Amino acid sequence: MRSLVAALLFAALPASALEIAGVNVADTATLDGKTLALNGAGLRTKSFLAIKVYVGALYVTQRSGDAAAIVAADAPKLLRITMLRNVDKDTMLNAFRDGIAANSPNQAAALAPRLKQVENSFPAEFKEKQVLAVSYLPGQGTTVGVEGDKAITIEGKDFADALFRIWLGPKPTDGGLEDLKAALLGAK
User: Fold this and answer.
1) Measured between alpha carbons, how far is residue 116 from residues 53, 131, 177 in Å?
2) Per-residue pLDDT, 16
3) Which residues contact 90 (CB under 8 A, 6 or more apart)?
4) pTM
5) Hey, where are the domains in the chain?
6) Which of 11, 38, 136, 137 is 20 to 30 Å from 3 by CA-CA measure?
7) pLDDT tens across 124-135, in order?
8) Per-residue pLDDT band at 154 (split at 50, 70, 90)
9) Residue 144's beta-bridge partner residues?
């Protein structure tokens, strides 16, 4: 049932609005029958060598350049992460943990069991071109998983807030994530 729900949540995206690192980014996305607008999209790089890791695209009901307002909004939102290289499960989980610890430090311990549940929706390795989707629907929760594969839905807006703060929080884990945050907010 969850796979069916995930398939319905992550419906096909319409025509591309822009291209980033060879990834076509649509100007809208459909989430549970609701049309969301592209707030911003950009490239996630890692290290001083600027290794291309993924393209992130943020879709919201109300476009905004205010990261805190986007996180706080009890409204549908979707972050699509298109992998540009292979990344193993542990690396991705550690990045999630680090992002939550940096941007939601007071909630990190309480959220750890729910993050552990997300682990079950991750493949052993994220492959180039796979899309990891993180979405939030009020009253339903946060759905995380690779599009077209298994996904898991976790209840609680607090969990959604912590996940979206990984990319939109006040403490990006490094410069590459800081640049992506600016792009997701439409600044780049």
Assistant:
1) 23, 20, 23
2) 52
3) none
4) 0.89
5) 2-184
6) 38
7) 999 999 999 999
8) very high
9) 134, 152
Which residue type, as a one-letter code, is found at position 169? G
pLDDT score of 90:
95
- Confidence bin at 39 (pLDDT 50/70/90): very high
CATH of 2-184, one of 3.50.70.10, 2.60.120.260, 3.10.120.10, 1.10.10.10: 3.50.70.10
Orientation of helix 108-119 relative to helix 89-103, angle to 10°: 160
Burial class (CB in 10 A: 0-12, 13-18, 19+), 1: exposed
If you average pLDDT over every residue of the chain, what do you get? 90
Helix (H) or strand (E) holding 36: strand 34-46
- What is residue 182's three-state secondary structure? helix
Give me 42's structure tokens.
């950009």
Quickly tell me which residue has 């929080």 as its tokens: 169
CB 111 within 8 A of CB 159: yes
User: Among 106, 94, 110, 102, which residue's Cα sits nearest to residue 168?
Assistant: 102
Tokens linked to 66: 């205010």
